[in-house]
Amino acid sequence: MYFGWEGELQTFVNLPKDEIIDQLTIKYPDYNNSQLTSWKETIDYLHSAFKNVDPNLLNHWQIIFEYQIPGEGGRRPDLIFLSATHVLIIEIKNKKSFTSSDFEQIRGYTRDIYHYHYQSRCKKVNGLLLLLQGDNKIKIKKNIKIISQKTDLISTLKEYSDIETSVPVDVNSWMQSRYEPIPSLIIAAKQIFTDNLNTFERIRNAGIPKVIDLLKKLAIESKNNKQHTLILISGVPGSGKTLVGLQFVHEYSQLISENRAVYLSGNGPLITVLRYILGDQSKVFIRSLYNYKHYYAQSNRNNFEEHVIVFDEAQRAWDKNQMYKSTNRPSRFDNIIDKSEPEMLISLAEENDWGMIVGLIGDGQEIHTGEEGGIELWYDAISKSNKKWDVFSAKKLIDGFSNCNKTSDEILVLDKSLRTHYLDNYHKWIKYLLNGDSSNANREACELKDKNFYLYITKNVDDAKKFMIDRYNDDGKIYDNKTYYEKTFGMLISSLAKNYRKYNIHPSDIMKQSESADRQKFGQWYYKKSNRNNTYCRTFNRVMSEFGSQGLETDAVILCWGDDYYWDNSENKWKLGKIRKNKNVKDVYKLRLNSYRVLLSRARDGIVVVCKDLDDTYDYLMECGFEELKVPINSLP
Questions:
Q1: Which of 407, 453, 445, 412 has the alpha carbon at shortest distance from 428?
Q2: Of the four listed, 55, 68, 477, 480, which is most buried by Cβ atoms within 10 Å?
Q3: What is the C-alpha separation between 176 and 187, in angstroms, rounded?
Q4: How high is the pLDDT of residue 258?
């Protein structure tokens, strides 16, 4: 429990400023002169405001200076006023007007305390932005009150007070209350090795523990009955499919230690990031699909070692043509080049007396050449098998299977996004936007913004960077076993965009999956282990494409819109830019659409789109709910 000073508001009013400052400097000894000045200005302002106020109002409230939100890397709202019925969160800026970053900062505090602080769930939680040099008008924007005058602060406290029914407030109990945010993929993946995912309420509510329990049950049945089983788990972007796979493989290895299990993904950057985060212990069961299939092909092994395979992003499995092309030297890979990836995995699993394949299916995320076959490749692989497989999946997928025993189970559908903060319509907004339905997209965007997910657009990349720096500049810096925790944000751009120089991006800055020499840097981009990391996403030195961001996430995203996929007002539809034709691509439009679906779905807090010299696209995105970014005139620091 960290805080600077707490007590009754009445006590605070009568306490000398120096005594309060002494407590603040003791609690936070790493303060600087700017912080000290801010504390003094705040105390002077409050002492003056409450000098002659009714004691009954003051006795109704407790006040907390610099409350540090648990487990959030040192994030601290300036002030919290606490009563039996209300939590009033206040951020103070010594300026005349506010920027988008100021506004989103207080909205973020309000959202997090409302959703994740258990003792605040039974209270009314409000946010207030206090401008010490502002004008006389009270502004209310998206449920955040913006004030400057001392009388406005007093009237706000009166508005939220119920003095007649007031009961004593246990401020220490409130500060010690359980706080449980939605974990990022990085935090949740690390949690697997110390505990299980059931400790996170949002993960429990999303049904993930039930899915893992079902997988363990089916694995035991497959082993006991000498059966081959395929389970397909589908879900929206960010619904926790990767976590399901990692947790299941980890728990299975403890449950049935004599039979090996492996987590496979064709997403090279995802594998690199997971291994970077989890360390050497993860290499035993987290494997690159590309290396895995080539290992078995080149070694001509007759004994397949793994009984359980988890294939992440199984909808992106390669077809037969792409498998042939990827080998480069076909004569060395005779036993795999005539098969699609699903056929290869099915045939490998059948080498053992029993086997189980878990396919994790993402909706609309096929972005690479050879991935367009999608779920049909699995239908075909099962139909060609000489063995009778048991297949489990959601009803929407099960009908396509033949020559097997089929069971539909809706537990295998993950339809709640864990990436965003209680925003189950995030993927709907993206769907409408990419389908050209601006009216429905705008409706969904209003709900997103009402729940404190921000959507901004600008033509200036420096303005977008400044917004991010200002928005998260109050992050704390805490080292725990040399691990650095803070909010993450970075720049994304389509791999086929040709207009990158308009966003001050050099071609070598864009991290693409094919850059094998930079593989280690993918982990460094998402996760900072020390201050000496120029690749880290927050430095803006490197830019991630859809290939490096699929399956991963940051708290916030700057998306530089490419000229490879743009809106045409005259035809009222999305169109493709000048893209080099690839004879192996069946539907280039579908791959571009899916690429932008990936790019738009990476953020947890919000998105800033930079759209320069694409006026029709800019106007269309505004119609879909984006707001123009408001930043100070001065340049980047």
A1: 445
A2: 68
A3: 22
A4: 65
C-alpha closest to that of 142 among 126, 118, 161: 126
* DSSP conformation letters of 215-269: HHHHHHHHHHHT-EEEEEEEE-TTSSHHHHHHHHHHHHHHHSTTSEEEEEES-HH
Residue for token pair 């769930």? 121
- Kindly give the parts of the chain with pLDDT less than 50: 329-333, 365-373, 475-484, 514-517, 633-637
Give the residue from 42, 152, 31, 155 showing the smallest Cα distance to 94: 42
Question: Which element (helix H / strand E) includes 277?
Answer: helix 268-278
Place of tokens 């793994």: 306
Using CA atoms, how far apart are residues 230 and 477, in angstroms rounded to an integer? 45
Instruction: Provide the residue count of the chain.
Output: 637
Report whether 549 contacts 562 (CB < 8 A): no
Q: 């282990």: which residue's tokens?
A: 529
Q: Which residues pair with 478 in a beta bridge?
A: 485
Residue 635: predicted pLDDT: 35
Q: Record the tokens describing residue 25, joined without a space.
A: 């400097």
Q: Please answer whether residues 28 and 39 qualify as being in contact, where contact means their C-beta atoms are separated by less than 8 angstroms.
A: no
Facing residues of 117 across strands?
Answer: 179
Separation between Cα atoms, residue 437 and residue 421, nearest integer Å: 24
Token representation of residue 548? 């490096």
Q: Which two tokens stand for residue 358?
A: 């878990």
Q: Determine which helix (DSSP H) or strand (DSSP E) holds 286, and give its type and residue range.
A: strand 286-288
**489, 557 contact by CB (below 8 A):** yes
Tell me the one-letter amino acid at 409.
D
Other C-beta atoms closer than 10 Å to the C-beta of 367 total 26
How far CA 397 is from CA of 228, 231, 320, 629, in Å, comes to: 19, 11, 22, 42
All residues at 6 or more sequence positions from 204 whose CB lies less than 8 Å from its CB, including other chains: 198
Beta-strand relationship, 627-628 and 478-480: unpaired
User: How confident is the model at residue 514, as a pLDDT?
Assistant: 46
Q: Which residue has the tokens 């992003």?
A: 313
**Token pair belonging to 142:** 């998206």
Structural contact between residues 99 and 464, judged by C-beta atoms closer than 8 angstroms: no
